[in-house]
């Protein structure tokens, strides 16, 4: 909560997709504070999902003049690279959706637990390796 500056997280709300969510492009523009041209030039397609490279976001974290945007981009990167690592070295579209909802006071705990459960279940079904 301190990292995201969310003082009013509503515990009773669960993570769910909005009916008409903003596009990945719009979410990245909102989170990073960068121009539409900057974001459009850096969006890539990885498999089924759109994503943006961590290296591009690292530059924003290091050079953005707005400190709040720096913290937001840094927190988005942590969520993507540590909690939901889908495409190695890239921030996934699903993570930006979660992060966008955090700004509205929705708690990420159910989403994190669901992702952990899904990962454990996949490891168990595959019968190989361990969940780390």
UniProtKB/TrEMBL annotation:
Residue stretches making up the DUF7745 domain: 12-130
Pfam families assigned: DUF7745
InterPro entries listed in its UniProt record: DUF7745
Top-level taxon in the UniProt lineage: Eukaryota
Identification of the protein by name: DUF7745 domain-containing protein
Lineage: Eukaryota, Viridiplantae, Streptophyta, Embryophyta, Tracheophyta
